[in-house]
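User: For my dataset I need records formatted as: sequence, then structure tokens, nothing else. Please produce one.
Assistant:
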Amino acid sequence: MKQNEVQDALARIAKVDFPNIQPIIGADKTTYYRNKLEFTFSNNRWLTQAEIDSDATFEREALGFHIPGRFDKIVDITHCHLQSAPSNEIRLAVKAFALKENLSFFDLRQQENLLRNLVVRTTSTGELMVIVIFFEPDMQAVEKLMAFLQTSFFEITSLYYIVNPKKNDAYQDLTPVLYAGKPYITESMEDLQFRISPKAFYQTNSEQAYELYKIVRTYATLQGKELVYDLYTGTGTIANFIARKAKQVIGIEYIEAAIKDAQQNAAINGIDNTLFFAGDMKDVLNTSFLDKHGKPDVIITDPPRAGMHEAVINTILVADPAKIVYVSCNPATQARDLQLLDHRYQIVAVQPVDMFPHTHHVENVVQLIRR
């Protein structure tokens, strides 16, 4: 189904010539593959129809996931098949402790009460970050729950809390407070180490991310003399992954905190041929930037689901690299962008990757060469 989605997007939306699509790379691990999950507390648990129809009374507190299409309904999770241990054990223990200590669960409609979200991040190196997000700065209650986690789960190597009094769950603009442990967790890929801070982005499926990055590196066909632009670089994972095969890699990303992570990851890996810049892509990547830093031999682009702004595509055409590697999590917007590049670039390889089993999402990597 995912392979067909890519085929259909290129044929019907892009309407360009492309070679036979490579067979999709499936995930060896289809359960317990996520390295990050965010659970939501609620005092208004989603009830089954059988529960609604019965006369019994039910516990209404929940710690789990949103029901599709309902911001105010949370399904309580007893066992999650997406993240490896001790994720389930931590979530269940936190819920039980909160009920025992009468810590209030968030009311999503009224925007009140204490406990808001629980974030669990794991790595292949065995490190574990837990972030508890509170709605109210009740420091006595915060201390009680954080101390419980610290003493109950020695596996936690990085323990944070955040107070979020806003009307949305986003915490990128808030300050995480380190309660115990290290300020980051570390993921490894080949001989590289990547530090992940509480707000840092890292591909959610670590094993498939490695498969994806290997394809990008292969499609870039670097010989060690190239100037590479890595657009939408995030925390610089791809940039640092390919840097040793290039003369220089320049990464651009909207989020300034992510750029700081990228610079730090380059430093801890002894990579000295990367430069990173923060700002809106359409504003940073312009002809002045090209004049100052040089026109790239290769461009790697991994935009968000909305794809690339037309101004960015126009600047790419001005930059005129010999090769483009386009990574996308949305084949439809990727196809739209490929159509705009078609008069100058020919698609020579297409490789879909299944990053998220049991979902409709598919990643796709396209290699283009200058006509």
